[in-house]
Structure formats: structure tokens, C-alpha cells
């Protein structure tokens, strides 16, 4: 048996096909923030005609997002982040979104 395979945790279908891609979408939107902002600005400025007037911005946004979605290294990065968060949850019982919140100060 290959030792590298033994260390790799087995992912459930929902993790591989739903949860990790969700994380990928969130991170890709952060990395493509300039394209997201340009598209949003165009949509707000043109209103109803955005379908016709914002095709260039939409194309640039789709290209940026697709580049990240199809990158195996990006998938691996997101998978490792997901596994770290899952491990922390198993250790602490606190979901990642609750761990990242600011703690209230009593002073």
C-alpha cells in the first residue's frame, strides 16, 4: 500500500462535490474582486440594459472565475483549508464561522 495514500483522508461525496466547491467559489470571488466590482458597478449604472451593456465585464468575470475553478492547485489549496477547518471542528466542536467572530470584550 502506498504510504501517501494512507495519510490522505477519504472525502465523502458531499465534501468533494459540494462543500469544497463552495469554498472554491467564495475564495475565487475574493481573488477576482476587481472583476466582481466592475461587473456590479456596470449593472448598477445601466439598470435594465445590463444584459447588453455589461457583456464585456461579465465575460472577464467568468474567465477569471473559471480559471480558478479549473486549477487543480487551487482545488488542492481549498481542500486542505476545508480539512483544517473540519479537523478544528472535530477538536473544538465550534464551527469555523463562530471561531472567526470577534470575541466581545468586557473592559
Write a concise synopsis of the structure shown.
It is built from 7 helices and no strands.
Describe the structure.
This protein is mostly helical and about 110 residues long. Helices cover about 75% and strands about 0% of the residues. It has helices at about 5, 15-30, 35-45, 50-55, 55-70, 70-90, 95-100. The longest helix is centred in the C-terminal third of the chain and has 21 residues, at about 70-90. The model is unreliable at about 1-5 (pLDDT under 50). Belongs to the CMC family. InterPro entries: Cyt_c_biogenesis_Cmc1-like. It is found in: Mitochondrion. Its main location: mitochondrion. Keywords: Disulfide bond, Mitochondrion.
Q: Which keywords apply here?
A:
107 residues; mainly alpha; 7 helices; elongated; disordered N terminus; disulfide bond; COX assembly mitochondrial protein; Cyt_c_biogenesis_Cmc1-like
Amino acid at each position: 500500500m502506498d504510504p501517501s495514500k494512507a495519510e490522505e483522508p477519504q472525502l465523502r461525496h458531499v465534501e468533494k462535490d459540494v462543500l469544497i466547491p463552495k469554498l472554491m467559489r467564495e475564495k475565487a470571488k475574493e481573488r477576482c474582486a476587481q472583476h466582481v466590482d466592475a461587473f456590479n458597478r456596470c449593472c448598477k449604472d445601466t439598470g435594465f440594459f445590463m444584459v447588453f451593456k455589461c457583456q464585456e465585464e461579465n465575460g472577464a468575470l467568468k474567465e477569471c472565475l473559471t480559471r480558478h475553478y479549473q486549477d487543480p492547485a487551487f482545488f488542492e489549496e481549498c481542500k486542505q483549508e476545508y480539512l483544517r477547518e473540519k479537523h478544528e471542528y472535530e477538536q473544538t466542536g465550534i464551527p469555523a464561522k463562530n471561531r472567526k467572530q470577534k470575541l466581545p470584550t468586557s473592559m
